Amino acid sequence: MENIDWKQFGFGYTKTDYNVRCHFRDGKWGQLEISSSDQVNVHIAATGLHYGQQAFEGLKAFKGPDGKVRVFRMDENAKRMQSSSHGIMMAEMPIDLFEEAVIKTIKLNERWIPPYESGASLYIRPVLFGNGAQVGVNPAPEYTFAIFVMPVGPYFKEGFKPTDYVIYREYDRAAPQGTGTIKVGGNYASSLRGGTRAHKEGFSAVLFLDAKEKKYIDECGPANFFGIKDNTYVTPKSNSILPSITNKSLCQIAEDMGMTVDRRKVTVEELADFTEAGACGTAAVISPIRKIVDADNNVDYFYGDEAGKTSLKLYETLRGIQYGTVEDKHNWNTIIEF
Ligand code: PLP
Ligand code: COI
Predict the structure, then answer these.
(1) Confidence check: pLDDT of 40 > 70
(2) Phi, psi (deg, nearest 5) at residue 335
(3) How many A from CA of 42 to the centre of ligand 2?
(4) 76 and 48, same structural domain?
(5) 158 within a domain of the structure (yes/no)
(6) Are the C-beta atoms of 183 and 55 separated by less than 8 Å?
(7) Contact (CB, 8 A) for 91 and 24
(8) Neighbouring residues of 92: CB distance < 8 A, sequence distance ≥ 6
(9) Which of 222, 181, 224, 182 is CA-nearest to residue 199?
(10) Which numbered atom of ligand 2 lies nearest the CA of 222?
């Protein structure tokens, strides 16, 4: 775009030209509607406001050196939004309607897609919430879906430079049989106290433990956790973490690289056995971990001031697939035709 400093973007909100909305009323989804306003109409008695009946998604589009624009695994985000909707009894949006909304919003904001050289990407944020009057605790009669895009740089300002994470046992983000596996706003509200304290104390995020026993690793604030040891990619299995699409992709890439993938419960003590560790997610991509401080026990697990070679290789392969410089052998990308 004209005179835009693409390097300036972190993860703050940037108003782009258009967004798209869709309403579910009388038992059916309506047409996609285009808007240039960044305000939405919410009923004063909407369940999205009162009872947390709300879910969101996050995905990215990338412009490659070949000039093509690729969206990464949007079918997975569509399915996860259905699963979130199912979990809190919202209307489920059909996969093809979700994908149509993603593509339409990207196309309407073509001039906001960062050029390849900038290293930035276009973040796509769909949100769905209960709207319409409902004061008793029941699912809403109507739903509003909205989707916007914005150019983004790194989520953690250090980018691929390793940063520090912290364990505090006094905060949980989700209950053992609760909403941890779906992408609902309440999980993020629950993470704010711990997360804000972590930032104040110089950490990138909280490494949450399982809420029941506080024995096992759950996830890293807004990202999943992985550790590397002996050519094995280890990542927690838990019923209170978000099934990360990035993590699922990294498991596949690790396998393709000849590594063993081990998805299982990971104890806190086992943090000492990893040679590398990282946080992974759409926003975080791979954010290597420098050290994890167990603040309650005064123990540190240190992985290094520089990213390890396996994390680097995983990062480069994932980015390469997303920008179209590494073969997309699992057909993860959708190329947007302008
Ligand atoms: N865990 C949480 C709590 C998240 O918010 C996210 C971000 O979406 C992730 C993990 C990573 O998931 P994904 O790779 O699908 O973006
Ligand atoms: C993402 O990675 O897309 C996220 O949702 C993380 C965060 C900004 C909530």
Answers:
(1) yes
(2) -85, 130
(3) 23
(4) yes
(5) no
(6) yes
(7) yes
(8) 82, 85, 86
(9) 222
(10) 6
Q: Same domain for 169 and 205?
A: yes
Q: At 4, list the tokens.
A: 């835009």
* DSSP symbol at 267: B
Is residue 176 within 8 A of residue 239, CB to CB? The reply is yes
Q: Which of 60, 63, 183, 291 is catalytic?
A: 183
Would you say the CB of residue 74 lies under 6 angstroms from ligand 1? no
Ligand 1, atom 9: closest residue by C-alpha: 223
What is the domain range of residue 114?
Answer: 6-152
Residue where a domain stops, chosen among 152, 176, 199: 152
What number does the ligand 2 atom closest to the CA of 183 have?
5
Q: Is 154 in the pocket of ligand 2 (CB under 6 A)?
A: no
Helices H, strands E: what count in the chain?
6, 18
Task: Give the Å distance between the CA of 248 and the centre of ligand 2.
Answer: 15
For the CA of 238, the nearest ligand = 1
pLDDT over 90 at 170, yes or no: yes
Q: Please report the pLDDT score of residue 1 as a whole number.
A: 52
Dihedral in degrees, nearest 10, Cα atoms 193, 195, 199, 205: 160
Give the tens place of pLDDT for each residue, 276-297.
Answer: 999 999 999 999 999 999 999 9
| Residue 246 in contact with ligand 1 by CB distance below 6 A | yes
Tell me the CATH number at 207: 3.20.10.10
**Ligand 2: does its nearest atom lie under 6 Å from the Cβ of 283?**
yes
- If asked whether residues 208 and 318 sit together in one domain, one would say yes
Indicate left, alpha or beta for 230 from its phi (over 0: left) and psi (-120 to 50: alpha): left
DSSP 68: -
200 counts as catalytic: no
**Does the Cβ of 287 fall within 6 Å of ligand 1?**
no
Q: Of 217, 313, 327, which is closest to residue 270 (Cα–Cα)?
A: 217
